[in-house]
Design goal:
The protein is of the alpha+beta class and 415 residues long. It folds into two domains: 4-151, Adenine-n6-DNA-methyltransferase TaqI, Chain A, domain 2 (Alpha-Beta Complex); 216-360, Adenine-n6-DNA-methyltransferase TaqI, Chain A, domain 2 (Alpha-Beta Complex). It contains ten helices and 24 strands. It has a four-stranded antiparallel β-sheet with strand order 2-10-7-8. It has a four-stranded antiparallel β-sheet with strand order 15-23-20-21. Strands 6-3-9 form a three-stranded mixed β-sheet. α2 (111-119) packs across α5 (154-193) and α5 runs antiparallel to α10 (363-402).
Length: 415
C-alpha cells in the first residue's frame, strides 16, 4: 500500500476557523443554535443540547460559512481533538469558540473518510503531540489548515468510509430512538403525576389534599431503601487492577460515560451495597461544575462500584424507582443552587435530598405506571448496549482500515 500524504486544506473547499469570541446568547429559545466543543465527541455531534442566539448574531457568526450536511467539525481546545460528522439537514447551526470546520472537495476527498482519518490513532497521536498550552492544550489555526493526512484513491476512501459509517449510522439511528423513548417516559411522568391525567382522563381531586383521591405526600427519606454516598476507597491511578469505580466525571447530560473510570485497589463486604445496579439513580454530590447532575443506569450491568462523590438512590420495593428518577431529575437545578461550600469544592448533603416531598399515587396507579416505564427503560437499555457493541466493533476496524492492515475488498459493504 502506497498512499500519498497531503495537507487537508488542499483537499477541502473550506478549512476555516470559527469566530473566536463569545456569541451573545438569547434568553429565549430561537431557531438559531450554537454548537460548542462539548457538543462534539467520538465522531458525533449533539444537536440537541445547544444554546440559542438571535438572527443578527447568527448572521455575524456565520459570515465565513454556515455548517452544512457533510461537513466535519474538529475541536481545537477544551477538549482538543474531538471530531464530529455534521449529519443535520438544518442550516440554522453555527460554531462556537475553539471549533474548526472542514468541507471536503468531493472530487478529492470523501467527507466520511475525512471524519474517520481524523479519529485514527496516527492523527490523534499527532494532535496530542503538537497541542500546547500551559494549562489547557490547544491547536493553532495554522496547524489545522496544514494537517497532513493519508490520501488513498477516492474509491478506496469511499469504501473505507462506507464500512465505518454503516456502524455510525446505526448508532445515530439508535440514539434517535432512545431520545424518543426517553421523551415518551418524561411526558408520561408529567401527565400522570403533575397534571393528574391517567390514560388521557383527569383524575378526581380531593379538595382537602389537592391530590387525586387515594394519593398522598411523603418525604423522600420514607420512600427510599437507600440514600447513600459510595465508600471512600484507595485507587490504583494506573488502572491496572481492581474494580472499576463510577465517579462524578462519568455523569454528563443525564448519561453515564465509562471513559473516565477510576479503579479501586481493594473492597470489602461492607461495600457490596455500593455496587452499581440496573436502574440506580445517581446524583453528583461533590465537585465544582459537576454538582447536582442526575443520571440513571439502564444498561450497565458489569461489576462496578459507586464513588463517594456520588449519592445513589434506590426506592423501597413497594414504591416506583421510575417515578423517583423523574422526580429527582426535576430537582437538578435545585440541587445545583443549594450547593454548600467555598470556592473550588461544593457538596450536596443527603439531608437536602431526604427532606424533599414526593407525591405518592395509589398502588394500582403505581403498578400500571411501572409496567409502562419498565418496558421503555428496558428498550432504552438494550439500544444503549447495542450502541456500545457497535462502537467497539467500529473502533477495532478503524485503525486497521486506515493503515491498510485490512483490505477493503475483504469486507462486504452493505447499504
Amino acid at each position: 500500500m502506497n498512499w500519498g500524504i497531503r495537507p487537508v486544506s488542499e483537499l477541502c473547499t473550506y478549512a476555516i476557523d470559527c469566530v473566536n469570541k463569545t456569541a451573545p446568547l438569547s434568553e429565549v429559545e430561537t431557531p438559531y443554535k450554537m454548537l460548542r466543543t462539548t457538543n462534539i465527541k467520538d465522531g458525533y455531534i449533539d444537536f440537541d443540547n445547544v444554546r440559542y442566539v438571535e438572527k443578527d448574531v447568527f448572521d455575524k457568526w456565520t459570515r465565513r460559512a454556515v455548517p452544512k450536511y457533510g461537513d466535519v467539525l474538529f475541536t481545537r481546545e477544551a477538549p482538543v481533538g474531538e471530531v464530529g460528522r455534521f449529519t443535520s439537514k438544518s442550516e440554522n447551526y453555527f460554531l462556537g469558540q475553539r471549533t474548526f470546520l472542514y468541507r471536503a472537495n468531493p472530487n478529492k476527498l470523501d467527507w466520511n473518510y475525512l471524519a474517520y482519518i481524523l479519529q485514527s490513532p496516527q492523527i490523534q497521536g499527532w494532535v496530542n503531540g503538537i497541542a500546547y498550552g500551559a494549562t489547557v492544550p490547544h491547536l493553532k489555526v495554522g496547524d489545522m489548515e496544514h494537517l497532513m493526512i493519508p490520501v488513498p484513491p477516492l474509491p478506496t476512501q469511499k469504501k473505507i468510509a462506507k464500512i465505518l459509517s454503516n456502524y455510525d449510522d446505526l448508532i445515530e439511528n439508535n440514539l434517535k430512538r432512545i431520545k424518543l423513548l426517553e421523551e415518551s417516559a418524561r411526558l408520561t411522568y408529567e401527565e400522570w403525576f403533575l397534571r393528574f391525567r391517567v390514560d388521557g382522563k383527569k383524575l378526581e381531586i380531593d379538595p382537602e389534599s389537592g391530590l387525586p383521591f387515594g394519593w398522598e405526600r411523603l418525604r423522600i427519606e420514607d420512600y427510599l431503601d437507600i440514600l447513600s454516598k459510595g465508600p471512600s476507597l484507595n485507587y490504583d491511578l494506573g488502572g491496572a487492577r481492581g474494580v472499576p469505580v463510577l465517579n462524578q466525571s462519568c455523569i454528563r447530560n443525564g448519561e453515564i460515560e465509562l471513559t473516565k473510570l477510576l479503579v479501586a485497589k481493594e473492597l470489602n463486604d461492607k461495600n457490596k451495597s455500593s455496587y452499581l445496579r440496573i436502574n440506580d439513580i445517581l446524583i453528583n454530590s461533590m465537585g465544582k461544575g459537576t454538582l447536582g447532575r442526575v443520571s440513571k443506569n439502564v444498561s450497565i450491568d458489569t461489576k462496578m462500584i459507586i464513588h463517594n462523590c456520588i449519592t445513589y438512590l434506590r426506592a423501597k420495593d413497594i414504591y416506583s424507582q421510575y417515578m423517583l428518577f423523574y422526580f429527582i431529575s426535576a430537582h437538578q437545578q435545585y440541587f445545583e443552587s443549594i450547593a454548600i461550600g467555598a470556592t473550588g469544592q461544593s457538596t450536596l448533603k443527603k439531608e437536602l435530598i431526604s427532606n424533599l416531598v414526593i407525591t405518592l399515587p395509589d398502588q394500582n396507579c403505581m403498578n400500571r405506571y411501572d409496567l409502562i416505564l419498565s418496558s421503555i427503560w428496558n428498550k432504552t437499555g438494550l439500544l444503549k448496549k447495542q450502541n456500545q457493541l457497535l462502537k467497539e466493533a467500529r473502533d477495532i476496524l478503524l485503525p486497521r482500515l486506515m493503515t491498510g492492515m485490512i483490505d477493503t475488498d475483504d469486507i462486504e459493504v452493505t447499504a
